[in-house]
Here is the input.
Amino acid sequence: MKNINKFLSLAFVAVLASATFTSCEDEDKARVIELGNGGFVKFVTAPVFEAGADPATASFDSAVEDPNETAALYEITVRGDFAGATLDTLAFRSTTTFPFDIGFTASDMASLFGVDASTFAEDDSFEFFGKVTTVDGVVYDGSTSAFISPTPTDPEADGYLDPSDPDFVPEPGQWNMQNSDGVLVGVPGLLAAYNWEVTFEDPAE
Here is the structure.
């Protein structure tokens, strides 16, 4: 009888160990990666990127916010597209607090680029790049993750480049598989402030 009880005890331990091992194995297989909020700075409201046709009176009015509250630093650089503009990207503004005003006038841009405000003309523009460094030190850089413009998606079209080709190199007009462009049209609330362009144009036209 003692031998039978001993055998049953050993069998029970073996079954229990097997069940525990299987349970742990299943738990490992079913493990879900924990996701967190990234560095996402956005426009408070959808901005108007046409600042006005006359640079003398044109202005861009907008502010950004940090809805995830993860941004330790937000930096903006800008590149000008006007007669005599430098090819360099200049530091525009930075902040550690939100909401943050990113509006400007032609006079502000003239001071930044070291030119007279009369230098600017209708259709001149400024491209901005936002960079977020989160409290965890992760960097989200709009200057390396921006949508520039569409390119042909038809393999038969002129200028088409196959992204699966080992020699594929992104060129102007291609999506580089990173952050979203300025305003995601049709998606309320996703007004990412990583890359946007403001032009001296009449918003009514």
